[in-house]
Amino acid sequence: MSNDSKTNEQVIVIRDMVPDDIEKVVTLEKQIFSDFWSQSAFVELLGEENCGAQVATHGSVIIGYSCFIIDDFRMHLANIAVVREHRRKSVAQRLLESILQRAKEDNCEFVSLEVRPSNMEARAFYDKHGFSLMRRQQNYYQSPVEDALVLVRFLNIKE
User: Fold this and answer.
1) pLDDT tens column, 37-76
2) N or C: which end of the chain has fewer CB within 10 A?
3) 3-state secondary structure of 95
4) Neighbours of 152 (CB within 10 A)
5) Which pLDDT tens digit goes with each residue over 120-159?
6) SS3 label, residue 137
7) Distance CA 113, CA 136 (A)
8) Which stretches of 90-143 are assigned E, i.e. beta strand?
9) How far is 39 from 27, CA to CA, in rounded Å?
10) 3-state secondary structure 46-71
């Protein structure tokens, strides 16, 4: 899957993650998150039939990525990230739109995710894109310890 657009004078391409992307994605993961995934977690994700991952590129540089898991009628957005210098340039929105399209194609009824209560920027982003609070999960994050807000967006497959 490849999806091109020009945003703020830069061409952003959304495409499926491939094994050769993992090393760069892990480097970004460690820069962006305090609770980061290991290289083996990304390798395992790409090897699973019900999982997927995408990268956003600007030229040959990976500037963002997303990971998801499909379980029957639901999609779990496991990870979405954009490097700081490319935030607020529609990169996360493009990744999310691609994920939502995939969820609809796979007849998922909803998409769920976890977010730190302290991550106000992400919470505002998900709120803007139709996600709402489903529940709070105690001590979900470990570095530092923090609860997770479990958010959900129901999909209208007929759209």
Assistant:
1) 889 899 988 888 889 999 999 988 999 999 999 998 999 9
2) C
3) helix
4) 17
5) 999 999 999 999 999 999 988 888 898 999 999 999 755 4
6) strand
7) 11
8) 110-115, 132-142
9) 9
10) HHCCCEEEEEEEECCEEEEEEEEEEE
